[in-house]
């Protein structure tokens, strides 16, 4: 017997989860996503979210309210007569009226091992902090921030050279499989909940633009984690003097390159090995603004890098 669901999500992370629920045969009566964004120089182009685009391809009804604190939006939720609500990186706060608007409650697919990394950027923060594992948890939402009881969980190892993009894609697929199992267990009345620990709570704050710049005065291991935690988006970056011009360059991958030689920020122009506080990193994948991603040799071919800062 299929459940009557609303799905709520916005970015690419959420798409495999929506598709898995649809493929499992659940009755997805509506999909909620954030408003389409204006794009282009004059803002005349409108870009739908990945979830809205996929939902429309599947023939599902899509709503994009600016807020769910509107009385009419809450009344519409109640009229849907839902068994459950499933969310995955939706991005809007859910009022209690929405959390209570279904028979079994609201279930979130969260990309961390709660209570570690509650909040907006758990994938990036886990890598930047040097965590060796993370995971997916299916939790029943309450009025707190990712503080509800856990229904299902699956751990995932974080490799030393795994980018946040690679981890994002893997966790998305794990989440898709896990939410289908959770809804099957919910149908059979065998979903068991465990309260989160009150110890080890950390918060994954949204990545701020001002923290994406690389600080070469940090230890090499910290620079390494910073680069991989922000790759490919929003991207860790530095400034380079290239052929006499100062340019902003994204650093997408690095490799440890031995002991420090010189002051932080000094570098070998032939290899782009950059000195950090206690070691050096080799810049192995770089991208100038508006350009494509290049390896070191392709990047420096025909260009003279005279300063990195």
Task: Give a verbal description of the structure.
The chain has 309 residues and is of the alpha/beta class. It is built from eight helices and 18 strands. The strands form four sheets. A seven-stranded mixed β-sheet has the order 5-2-1-6-7-9-10. Strands 12, 13, 14, 15, 16, 17 and 18 form a seven-stranded antiparallel β-sheet that branches. A two-stranded antiparallel sheet has the order 3-4. Helix 1 runs parallel beside helix 6 and helix 5 packs antiparallel against helix 7. It is elongated and about 65 Å long. The model has no long low-confidence stretch (mean pLDDT 95).
Tags for this model:
8 helices; 7-stranded antiparallel beta sheet; elongated; 309 residues; 7-stranded mixed beta sheet; alpha/beta
Summary of the model, kept short:
This protein has 309 residues and is an alpha/beta fold. 25% of the residues lie in helices and 29% in strands. β16 and β17 (294-295) form a beta hairpin.
């Amino acid at each position: 017997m299929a459940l009557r669901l609303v799905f709520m999500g916005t970015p690419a992370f959420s798409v495999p989860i929506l598709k898995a629920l649809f493929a499992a045969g659940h009755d997805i009566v509506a999909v909620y996503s954030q408003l389409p964004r204006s794009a282009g120089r004059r803002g005349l182009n409108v870009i739908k979210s990945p979830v809205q685009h996929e939902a429309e391809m599947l023939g599902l009804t899509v709503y994009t309210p600016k807020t769910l604190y509107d009385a009419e939006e809450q009344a519409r939720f109640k009229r849907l007569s839902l068994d459950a609500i499933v969310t995955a990186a939706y991005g809007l706060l859910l009022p209690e009226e929405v959390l209570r608007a279904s028979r079994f409650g609201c279930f979130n697919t969260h990309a961390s091992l709660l209570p570690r990394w509650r909040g907006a950027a758990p994938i990036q923060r886990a890598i930047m902090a040097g965590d060796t594992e993370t995971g997916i948890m299916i939790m029943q939402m309450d009025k707190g921030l990712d503080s509800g009881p856990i229904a299902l969980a699956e751990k995932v190892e974080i490799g030393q050279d795994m980018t946040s993009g690679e981890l994002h894609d893997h966790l998305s697929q794990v989440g898709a499989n896990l939410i289908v199992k959770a809804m099957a267990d919910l149908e059979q009345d065998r979903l068991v909940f465990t309260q989160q620990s009150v110890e080890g709570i950390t918060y994954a704050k949204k990545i701020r633009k001002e923290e994406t710049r690389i600080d070469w005065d940090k230890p090499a291991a910290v620079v390494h984690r910073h680069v991989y935690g922000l790759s490919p988006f929003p991207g860790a970056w530095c400034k380079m003097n290239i052929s006499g011009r100062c340019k902003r360059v994204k650093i997408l991958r690095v490799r440890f390159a031995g002991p420090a030689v010189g002051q932080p920020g000094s570098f070998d122009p032939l290899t782009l090995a950059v000195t950090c506080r206690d070691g050096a990193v080799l810049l192995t994948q770089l991208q100038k603004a508006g350009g494509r991603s290049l390896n070191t040799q392709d990047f420096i071919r025909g260009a003279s890098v005279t300063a990195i800062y």
